[in-house]
Specification:
The chain is mainly beta and 467 residues long. It contains five helices and 26 strands. The chain has a nine-stranded antiparallel β-sheet. It has a six-stranded antiparallel β-sheet with strand order 1-2-23-22-21-20, with no helix packed on it.
Length: 467
């Protein structure tokens, strides 16, 4: 697509996008029925109730932690970000993250691991539209805290490490012994569809707690979020030395930048503000994207090293940036704890005192808009991963303190409940993650990150509602 046609198509969707901002500015809450009342629904796998869904929707869980891949190795836990690609005979190829921390040893074949002591990575599964596993295997191992990432136009997944652990950094909050690690962590990795990853980090894209990636096919830029739990976070972009679609892969050696508000150095966007607020933006360069540490600095110091460079140059301050998705020229991304504490709510721990914001960066104009801010936890509670339906409705995965939902946010600012997670006994921290629609739109695949994590395939009368 040439630039003129691309801009014309983007302008055509500006109206509905503006509608989100307008709706938010007129009250921030516009709940709608969505697909109707949620009811306890039995898992077609074994008859247990794990999800609450509207009438007409069904689901099957698959590939739970502790089960076996097709090669006989064990499925790790902490299922997180995920993307779906078209497979043969109507199947979907899923590439799924595992957010495992600590020097616990690599899953799968340790000889192929980036760091044989690290327990995170990705798995690749070929599944039917009804959640039946056809084939599965580890695809990247020996990485750590693989949180989310993003699908790439050249049929690859970019997986993000949400940590800066390594033998050169003191132990993190978990108490794991970093001296046992053999490699530095905190990078992004490319995982191609159909073959195992090379396990080569893209070091020029930064060493910081990466969360997710959204790819802009018009420019080849990768937009990246940072989830620095206790400290300010930033919104980044990586400009590869060659357009990845032309190169057929993601190349190292590019330029890392951080977003700043034009005319307002270190603008604090983590605090509550009126939905629909728009900012003109610029990008500041990060001179040392892969900082070299000596003397094993404290983890809290190392985890801020890249972000501090950006903020010293004027970059904006966000609270816990997590999910991101590219849709029709716009990068939608989530600030999990952005906003103000609503009356009656308790502020969450960590940096940021709100219950969530949804931002949109218009790639063609450089404008940043706040499209939604949670007015209270009962409406939206700590949104995390995000994806978009073909209609442009966002699917928000909650990581809240109470019941966790999959919620929809439409282009006109309407928010609705689509699915509720049945509480898991003894595991109050269980949460939704990794929502992604299958290639033909028939199935929504999603993970539940839990002590016994698993994946789900959900299908039903999508045409009846707003997805």
């Amino acid at each position: 697509m040439d630039r003129r046609r691309f801009i014309a198509n983007v302008i055509a969707v500006a109206g509905p996008f503006a509608g989100v901002a307008c709706a938010g500015a007129q009250g921030g809450v516009k709940p709608v029925p969505g697909y109707g009342r949620l009811r306890p629904t039995a898992d077609l796998r074994d008859g247990k109730v794990r999800l609450h869904l509207p009438d007409g929707f069904r689901y099957r869980s698959f590939s739970a932690a502790g089960e076996r891949f097709s090669d006989g190795s064990a499925v790790p836990g902490r299922h997180d970000g995920m993307a779906a690609f078209s497979g043969p005979d109507g199947s979907a190829i899923l590439i799924r993250n595992h957010e495992v921390n600590g020097p616990v040893g690599a899953f799968g074949d340790k000889e192929k691991a980036y760091d044989p002591m690290a327990g995170g990575g990705t798995s690749t599964l070929r599944v039917s539209r009804f959640g039946e596993v056809i084939q599965s295997a580890p695809s990247l191992n020996g990485t750590m805290m693989n949180c989310s990432g993003g699908p790439m136009a050249w049929r690859a997944w970019v997986s993000c490490e949400e940590t800066v652990n390594g033998p050169d950094v003191a132990d993190d909050f978990s108490g794991g012994d970093n001296s046992k690690l053999t490699r530095k962590h905190g990078y992004i990795f490319e995982v191609p569809v159909g073959r195992a990853a090379t396990a080569r980090p893209i070091k020029s894209a930064g060493r910081f707690p990466h969360e997710s990636v959204a790819f802009d096919p018009s420019t080849g830029a990768l937009y990246m979020t940072e989830d620095n739990f206790s400290f300010p976070s930033g919104f980044y972009r990586y400009l590869p030395p060659k357009h990845p679609v032309q190169a057929g892969r993601l190349l190292d050696g590019g330029r890392l930048q951080m977003l700043a508000v034009k005319g307002a150095k270190r603008k604090d966007l983590s605090v509550g503000q009126r939905a629909g607020t728009t900012y003109e933006t610029v990008w500041v360069d990060i001179d040392e994207p892969d900082p070299a540490f000596t003397g094993r600095p404290a983890y809290d110091e190392a985890v801020q090293a890249v972000g501090k460079q950006g903020r010293e140059a004027g970059a904006a301050v966000f609270s816990r940036l997590e999910g991101a998705v590219f849709h029709q020229g716009v990068v939608y991304f989530v600030s999990t704890q952005g906003g103000d504490t609503a009356p009656g709510d308790t502020p969450p721990s960590g940096f940021g005192k709100g219950r969530g914001q949804v931002w949109a960066y218009e790639t063609w104009s450089g404008r940043l808009k706040l499209v939604y801010e949670s007015p209270r936890s009962a409406t939206l509670d700590l949104p995390d991963n995000v994806t978009a339906s073909k209609r442009g409705t966002l699917v928000l995965c909650e990581d809240g303190d109470g019941d966790n939902y999959l919620r929809g946010l439409t282009k006109s600012g309407e928010i609705f409940d689509f699915c509720r997670l049945e509480p898991i006994s003894g595991d109050p921290g269980a949460e939704f993650a990794g929502s992604t629609f299958g290639p033909d739109g028939h199935t929504l695949y999603v993970n539940v990150q839990a002590k016994q994590g698993r994946s789900f395939a959900i299908w039903g009368p999508w045409e009846r509602g707003l997805f």
